[in-house]
Amino acid sequence: MSSEIDFSGWSCPLPLRDYPNIVLGHGGGGKLSAELVENLFVPAFRNSVIEGLGDSAVLRVPPGRLAFSTDSYVVRPLFFPGGSIGELAVNGTVNDLAMSGAHPLYLSVAFIIEEGLPMATLGEIVERMRIAAHLAGVQIVTGDTKVVEKGHGDGCFVNTAGIGVVPDGREIGPGRAKPGDVVIVSGTLGDHGMAVMSVREGLQFDSVIQSDSAALNGMVEAIFAASADIHVLRDPTRGGLASSLNEIAAQSKVGIALSEENLPVKSDVAAACELLGMDPIYVANEGKLVAIVDESSAERVLRAMRHHPLGSDAAVIGTVIAERAGMLTAKTKIGGTRVIPMQIGEQLPRIC
Amino acid sequence: MKYLNEFRDGETAQRLFREIGRITTKPWALMEVCGGQTHSIIRNGIDQLLSEKIELIHGPGCPVCVTPLEMIDKALAIAAKPGVIFSSFGDMLRVPGSQKDLFRIKSEGGDIRIVYSPLDALKIARENPGREVVFFGIGFETTAPANAMAVSLAAKEKLRNFSVLISHVLVPPAMEAIMSSSINRVQGFLAAGHVCSVMGYWQYPALAERFNVPIVITGFEPLDVLDGIRRAVIQLEAGRHEVENAYGRVVTFEGNKPAQEMLEKVFHVTDRVWRGIGMIPKSGWSLRAEYRDFDAEYKFAVRNIVTQESSLCRAGEVLQGAIKPTDCAAFGKACTPRSPLGATMVSSEGACAAYFNYGRFVKVEDLATACPAK
Amino acid sequence: MCLAVPGEVKEIYEASGTRMGRVNFGGITKEVCLAYLPDIAVGDYTIVHVGFAISRIDEESAKKTLQMFHDLGILEEELNAPLPVRDP
Predict the structure, then answer these.
(1) Among the four A93, A285, B146, B336, which has the fewest Cβ within 10 Å?
(2) Is A350 in the C-facing interface, judged by CB distances under 8 Å?
(3) Terminus-to-terminus CA distance in chain B, angstroms?
(4) ipTM of the predicted structure?
(5) What is the pTM of this model?
(6) Does domain C5-79 have CATH number 2.30.30.140?
């Protein structure tokens, strides 16, 4: 949860100290807004672009194709074991860029804050974003803040958008899976979703499950270093692995066949899913990727992933096939076959 | 997880499939009563690997599926009332009423909260003394003790703002109704293991005797289900019709006495309409008069509910095992998990949803070639 | 119906006059109402449905069942060349 913020590192802490909570004025574009930018955001995200305080960030980017992605983060609660909306907002967009094969470079961040949110909470979120951006090697160069009336905002919503550059020669995308390809996942499934579930009102339980939120661009580079024959990269966030693979199967017009017993799941995540009647294959991940690669590259790519700190549990989980195009199936542990469909809406805990 | 993983062992499952194949000489039709068993069968592919001679007919043991339409509409009406906090198990959120479902009510501003246990709903009531908190108390005999405890504690604490919408259904009367039906094809039952962990199985010998059917109390993990099938087939092949307990690690003949005492204290038997099936006499529980203050049906003016079931929906026939979901013209077309016409397509263990989600609209043989052995 | 999960009782206590406990399910723990199992003890296993322990798991019975499954394998060997079921 939020800890004491060290105000002394900021250039002019006094105005912020007068406001323990966010008020409507902080989003109004006037003096309060300016103070928030100057005393909270700029010092946290410190770089020459943001310090310019221009209406837009003017950037020089290396040659190549530009990758551009955006995502909004509405997670509740704002803080959960292993992370917060801050890490999600940075890592999520960094990962979307990385999944296209891009080197992520710059992020924008837009806050929509509920009136009354404690300043310390916002400060903690911003600090987490600073650290995440630093770890990912990206800079946050522009942003916006709006404040809504109490009762309309769930505390804090964040949007990030990001740009990156895709080096020539990288042609990956969800439509590029081919029969014969090998499906590899970088680690255990369902950690993030169950970490959030563990602190959700009405469902909470005690565990050491941590969100796996992490920037994957480093591991993606390691994958490309191992082989040029990467067909698809995807980070299975909302909807879990099942949703990502269903989408890929549909876009590539192929079938994907998994082996259930090869799916890596931590035992306490599995236990939490048992308790709530949920299936880890549908639970969100925030620091995992699935790679679909040419058969000949599979061994090298797997090794490269396993060597990377974020990929130590990487495993081959299935193959791409020509039959049953658009469908995701799995061999069950007892030798049967199940179809794994797209889920309808959010997976809900069940008693039946 | 202990007591879970051991009963999912693949090699042992294969062994049981072969054993069942070895002992089955004639065709038999078995019904697994509990929706959780249906879920386990379809999800693990047990029906695909079972001897062709054995037909599994899926029973109406899905409380979500059989909760009467009128009760769903009452729930929706209560949930839509301003100021009410409506709490429910997750399963009920997407069940279609005559017009809407709880998710729709939520999007229209209703305060609807998913809980894991009725005690969580009680907690919400204690923490929100100014709001009316209602809990949707559905379920079979397994869930009834939990709901009863919530009511009992509310009464003890004199919680003025808590009430329960009770819609319990009972298994033995349903089994009796199925066996008495002229279209019944069921020759043996896999009884609901967790219902029996509460109620025991002293109610079954009379049924087995009267209708000449073997009844095997069965669990839920793949090996439990296979063992239940194996024992039922052994009996059928030998012409026996006894009650047998294949879930001995959890179920005893008498069941859970303290739970049964609480049930007796809080509920009384009532006639109950089963959605898609019709009225089965003495097949439900409702709150006793002493607990009227906690009975949401009385607390809220939810009369004049006009129910309207889809004319295309054949959930009732599916629930009785008369047809397979694939026999229904609407299956997979007008009726899918995204746009369900009836409850059997909504519930994760409803036969229609299970068939759709686990691919039973694809022929089993085709499915097999789709997944080369790894 | 009836998703009930096995767990180990780690702690038993009273809360507002009701017998409650902490049950460990494969690494995660949750508060569970033990009112319906007045004789259950710490270290016992129970199955839990919607936050209520409804039955104690009989370890002996579980062992017997698993042993019986194991013996089926021996029986199969004795019978030699078991009849195949249709290929999955």
Answers:
(1) B336
(2) yes
(3) 25
(4) 0.90
(5) 0.90
(6) yes
